[in-house]
Amino acid sequence: MLTLPADHAPDGMRLEDHLTGKSGPVSVIRAFAEALPGIAARLAAGRLYSDPAAVIGINESGDKQKAMDDAAHHYVLPYLRDAGVRLVLSEEAEDIVTLNPDGLWDVAMDPIDGSNSIGIGAPLGMFFAVFPAKGADFLRPGSEIVAAGYASIGHSLDYGFTLGEGVQIFGYDPQGRDFRQTHANVQLKPKASTIAYNASNQRHWAQGLQDWVCDMELGRDGPRGRDFNMRWLAAAAGELHRILIEGGAFLYPADSRKGYENGRLRTLYEAFPIAFLIEQAGGKATDGVNTILTRLPEAHHEHIPLVFGAAEEVDIIRDYLTR
User: Fold this and answer.
1) How many CB atoms lie within 10 A of CB 126?
2) How far apart are the C-alpha atoms of 251 and 286, rounded to whole Å?
3) Phi/psi at 313 (nearest 5 deg)?
4) What was the pLDDT predicted at 59?
5) Interacting residues of 261 by C-beta distance below 8 A, sequence separation 6+
6) CA of 323: how far to CAs of 209, 217, 255, 319, in Å?
């Protein structure tokens, strides 16, 4: 491995040391940490062995299911079974999966986020939310979540999570084969200078959002009085990771196209974990107007509009939408 002049042995806290003595679904946090290096390694191998982006079907969310999507789903399940998880709701499975009938935790997960970018070197990721075991389904509000996490898989493998006591981010050390803490108790700045959205969809948005974009694009010469930058990684996990570290805001709103009337991200295994993490970091997450975590899902794979990040910008977007 190339070494830089200032390189030294990792000195961040080991993940296991951080988790020791903590309560709640610690076993689930460990389980995803154990599964992630194998997933990241296969993604890094790209097309060397087969095509991980090969389309093998359509998932319950209506998206093309890639070979890597399905494989990651099945790869994670044994780790969750060993962690005592009762039920799993996955983007890549039509039905809820029962692992341990007497388990303490239920997990909603998106095993591979951003799978349209598999095989082209763009950031990918994973999301999960942990609920106390309860009932036979996942139709419950985000306020019942007790832990959530994400992975960002790019030039590094980064793992962020919260047990309800702040957001911690760990990076994977391939030489030590361990996760080491890189960011502790992450807190977002209330103002956003960098915004993430798909500009090609702008013409389909509600007028209030189009007005917001126009005022933002005018920068220091417009009503906002300052300039903004734009980023669009096309993977919500990568956007979340960047925003937690550098600040900013993200939006994938509802629009007028068929199939996008309720946005495109999924409530239970994308919007809920993002919202829980963002709020733990001092930011906000809404559907444009209403707080995400108060929502009661009506279906396991439903779509929802999502705005998250710096609290001030999320509030400003709400104001434009409710004028």
Assistant:
1) 26
2) 9
3) -70, -35
4) 75
5) 254, 255
6) 10, 19, 17, 6
**CA distance to 75, 122, 125, 128, 312, per residue, from 113 (Å):** 15, 11, 5, 11, 27
Count helices and strands (H / E) in the chain. 7, 17
pLDDT for res 61: 64
Residues in contact with 223: Cβ distance below 8 Å, sequence separation at least 6, in sequence order? 215
On the 0-12 / 13-18 / 19+ scale of CB atoms within 10 A, 234 is middle
Question: Which of the 8 DSSP states describes residue 307?
Answer: E
The residue ranges of the chain whose pLDDT is under 70 are 60-62
Q: For residue 40, what are its two tokens?
A: 């990241």
Q: Which residue has the tokens 């199939």?
A: 259
Residues belonging to the chain:
323
Residue 229, phi then psi, degrees to nearest 5:
-110, 165
Say what the pLDDT of residue 287 is. Answer: 98
Which residues, 6+ apart, have CB-to-CB distance to 103 below 8 Å? 84, 85, 86, 87, 133
pLDDT recorded at residue 63: 77
Residue at token pair 């399940």: 77
pLDDT of residue 184: 98
Residues with Cβ < 8 Å from 74, sequence gap 6 or more? Answer: none
pLDDT of amino acid 121: 86
- Kindly report the pTM of this predicted structure: 0.97
